[in-house]
Amino acid sequence: GESVGLHLPTLSVQEGDNSIINCAYSNSASDYFIWYKQESGKGPQFIIDIRSNMDKRQGQRVTVLLNKTVKHLSLQIAATQPGDSAVYFCAENMRRLTFGEGTQLTVNP
Amino acid sequence: GAVVSQHPSWVICKSGTSVKIECRSLDFQATTMFWYRQFPKQSLMLMATSNEGSKATYEQGVEKDKFLINHASLTLSTLTVTSAHPEDSSFYICSARARTGEDSPLHFGNGTRLTVT
Questions:
Q1: Does A46 touch chain B (CB under 8 A)?
Q2: What is the pLDDT of residues B19-51, one digit of tens each?
C-alpha cells in the first residue's frame, strides 16, 4: 500500500547548526502534509503543515519544503537548540493520517 | 490552541483484566477522534476512527471486540482494552481535529502507557 517513509532514522547536530530532516512519500495523490515532533513519553506535537499547492512554507525557525516531482518533503530547523531533540515524523493526510518511521534528532551542546 | 487530554497517562493491569482509556477534546468539539498505538522505537499506527453517535471504524488487523471504542459525546471518546494480555502493552494515543476538513492537522493527547503484567 501507500506509505510515508524517512531517509534517515537518526540525526545528530551541534547546537546552533541548522537541521534538515527528510521524508519520502509514495502517494502522488497526497495533497496535505504535516510535520510532528514527539518528545519521549508524550504525544506528537504539531509543528507545521503544507498543502500540495505550495512548495515552501515557513514558521518560527522551521521551514517545510515540498517537492512533488520526486515526492519528497523536508523539515528545516534553524539554529537548532537542545530543546529540539525529539523524534520527528512526517505525516501524509488523506482520509487518515499516515506516519512515517520517524527521525531521532539529537542536539549536542 | 486545541487541546486533547487523555486519562490515565499510565496504567498497569494484570493479564485478563480490562482497561479503559479516556480521550477528551477540551476546547473544541470533535465528531471524529482517532486512536493510535505506538510500540517502542516505532511509528504511530492507526487503530480505529471513533465516530460520535455511531460505530467506530477499525483498521485492518485490529480486533474490534478486543478494542472497544465508544464516542458518546462530542468531547469524549473511550478505548477499552478487554482481556488485556502482555502483548497489548503499548503507548495508546488519541487525536482529533479542531476544525472540519481533512486539510487540517490532528491534535494529539499525551498518550497512555499501558503495561500488562
A1: yes
A2: 999 999 998 999 899 999 999 889 999 999 998
Residue whose C-alpha cell reads 510500540 in the numeric block: B39
pLDDT at res. A35: 96
Cβ within 8 Å of residue A77, ≥6 positions away: A18, A19, A20, A21, A61, A62, A84, A105
Cα A45 to the center of its chain, rounded Å: 12
User: Cβ of B6 and A43 within 8 Å?
Assistant: yes
Q: What does the alpha-carbon distance between residue B93 and residue B51 come to, in Å, rounded to a whole number?
A: 16
The dihedrals phi and psi of B92, each to the nearest 5 degrees, come to: -105, 130
If you measure CA to CA, which chain A residue comes closest to B2?
Answer: A46
Nearest to A32 among B46, B102, B111 (CB): B102
User: How many Cα atoms are found within 13 Å in the side-chain-facing hemisphere of A31?
Assistant: 7
**CB within 8 A of B16, min separation 6: which ones?**
B83, B84, B85
Is the predicted pLDDT of residue A1 greater than 70, yes or no? Answer: no
CB contact under 8 A, A95 and B93: no
Q: Do B43 and A100 touch (CB under 8 A)?
A: yes
Distance CA A59, CA B106 (A): 18
Interatomic CA distance for residues B9 and B52, integer angstroms: 23
Supply angle C-alpha B104, B107, B109, rounded to 5.
165
Q: Which three cell numbers stand for residue A14?
A: 551541534
Choose among B83, B87, B53: nearest CA to B69: B53
